[in-house]
Specification:
about 525 residues, alpha/beta, Alkaline Phosphatase, subunit A, 15 helices
Length: about 525
């Protein structure tokens, strides 16, 4: 009996062994797959975060950029832990076009946005913005304050002309500077954003809009530190954009009488092409200000810079306290530069260095060498591809900027020979040494050439100087190629629409003013 059943018993053993082996292999594959998933999860937890800080209308009047008057200890501290780009430039010296440009990684010829209050999706509806790309990669993309265009200060507390597809969450701070807007000094009654205006405010930092924004950002950092969620936190300060409002203690940092105001000769305008001269004479009520008034306004601008610096310091300190600094990239910049009386002009919207040049500091945990300075020409549209490189995220196909990673790895490296900026019918390139500006489609409205080796203030136009003929001729070829390249429709951008309409605007309302049914002011708040 035993003998007759033995073959069956042997057969059953083989079957059982096969089943056991099959189960083992299946479990092994499952474990292998689980380990792969776990590894993927682990990698996602190790993603580098990004704290993206942008000031509004901030020029390079900072301590770390060599200004010995302005007090900016926190921005200076950030520069010591990162790379400072000495020769960084925006692509259009106006808030809306500049922001649409660097937040998409495109030139304004490609975004088709050259004015404020233009909606990004009306011009390039399919483009993947910077914040949107981080969302696509599992990051929490959060905006606090001004990132895309807002009318400043009238849109404070709202979402302005924002791009809702760029963010998972948004926060719109609203502070005492808006409640007490009626107290603000201004060259034109009840006009603040487009004209020079200022106020030494009562109260503390955290009562002001930007102070509230910094507080909200700190709350978000605490949340991200606990949740371990990777983040792209974009913090947009409204200052030092007009009105120059900051708590009084920041005004006390400066001796108004010692603040210098540039003086320009009456013959200077004759050396410029007409469009250039027009750009620095556009604001009629800001021309030829009395020295005492000019000093008061410039003091207010400096005080507001110091106020923003303090908010930047709060963010950096909290990153360090939470331990997030070990896993977070920090970018600090501005949307464009700003004239403070240089060339006889105040504010922006020119193709001089004062308006094109911006502060740019990038700090990353992966940096081997810190506190370095690059003199290579770079552009704000280079930020998008740089952050993609630093976070190991695949770049969208439409990006035309260049990653600054090679410079961050080798401070003597360069990724481009010139930085291109456009203003209306003019284009300007800045190399290591020269600035060439062309006005008109074929240069028919004139050229400007400035040699920064001998003329950093750009007051001596050398375009017609025979000693510089070779320089002018060579740079003309460069600028023509730069303009051509900046006008090409990039692959992957999707649809482009020309001449889209501006967002309709209503009159600004200062809180507390009483208006009639036509919007005319009946009674001013005092």
């Amino acid at each position: 009996m035993i003998k007759s059943y033995f073959p069956l018993f042997k057969k059953n053993i083989n079957i059982n062994l096969f089943i056991a082996l099959l189960c083992f292999c299946s479990c092994s594959e499952a474990n292998k797959e689980k380990k792969t998933i776990d590894k993927s999860i682990s990698n996602s937890l190790e993603k580098l975060n990004v704290l993206f800080i942008i000031a509004d209308d901030l020029n390079c009047d900072l301590g770390t950029y060599g200004n010995l008057v302005v007090k900016t200890p926190n921005i200076d501290r950030l520069a010591k832990r990162g790379v400072l780009f000495e020769n960084a430039h925006n692509q259009y010296p106006l808030c809306g076009p500049s922001r649409a440009s660097f937040l998409t990684g495109l030139y304004t010829n490609q975004t088709k946005i050259t004015k404020n209050n233009m909606n990004l999706r009306n011009s390039v509806p399919d483009v993947i913005s910077l914040g949107q790309r981080f969302r696509q990669q599992g990051y929490q993309s959060v905006r606090i304050g001004k990132m895309f265009h807002y009318d400043n200060p009238s849109s404070i507390g709202t979402s302005g002309n924002d791009d809702i597809y760029s963010w998972d969450q948004t926060i719109n701070p609203y502070g005492l500077d808006k409640i007490e807007e009626y107290k603000i000094n201004t060259l034109t009654p009840r006009k603040y954003g487009g004209t020079l205006s200022w106020l030494a405010a009562d109260g503390d930092d955290e009562e002001q809009t930007d102070g509230i924004g910094a507080t909200e950002a700190i709350k978000k950092l605490d949340y991200f530190a606990k949740s371990k969620i990777p983040f792209f936190l974009a913090v947009g300060f409204f200052r030092p954009h007009t009105p120059f409002v900051a708590p009084k203690k920041y005004f006390d940092l400066y001796d108004r009488e010692k603040i210098e105001i540039p003086e320009i000769s009456d013959d200077y305008l004759a050396t410029l092409p007409k469009p250039a001269a027009k750009s620095i004479r556009a604001k009629k009520n800001q021309l030829d200000l009395e020295k005492e008034l000019a000093q008061e306004i410039k003091e207010a601008y400096y005080a507001t810079i110091s106020f923003v610096d303090a908010q930047v310091g709060r963010l950096i300190s909290h990153l360090e306290e939470s331990g997030l600094d070990e896993n977070t990239i920090i970018v600090f910049t501005s949307d464009h530069g700003y004239h403070m009386g240089e060339h006889g002009h105040w504010q922006k919207q020119t193709l001089f260095e004062n308006a094109t040049r911006v502060p740019l500091i990038i700090s990353a945990p992966t940096l081997k060498n810190k506190g370095l300075i690059s003199n290579s020409p770079v552009e704000l549209i280079d930020l998008y591809p740089t952050l993609m490189d630093l976070t190991n995220i695949k770049k969208p196909q439409h990006l035309v900027g260049k990653s600054l990673s090679p410079i961050m790895n080798n401070i003597n490296a360069s990724v481009r020979g010139s930085a291109l900026t456009r203003w209306r019918n003019g284009y300007s390139i800045k190399t290591n040494r020269y600035r060439l500006t062309k006005w008109g489609t074929n240069g028919e409205l004139g050229y400007e050439l400035y040699d920064h080796k001998n003329d950093k203030e750009e007051l001596i136009n050398l375009a017609k100087n025979q000693n510089y003929n070779k320089v002018v001729d060579s740079l003309k070829l460069v600028i023509e190629q730069r303009i051509t390249d900046a006008s090409i429709k990039p692959q992957g951008i999707g649809r482009q629409f020309e001449n889209t309409k501006l967002m309709p605007k209503a009159k600004n309302i200062t809180f507390g003013d009483i208006h009639d049914t036509n919007g005319e002011i009946l009674q001013l708040k005092k």
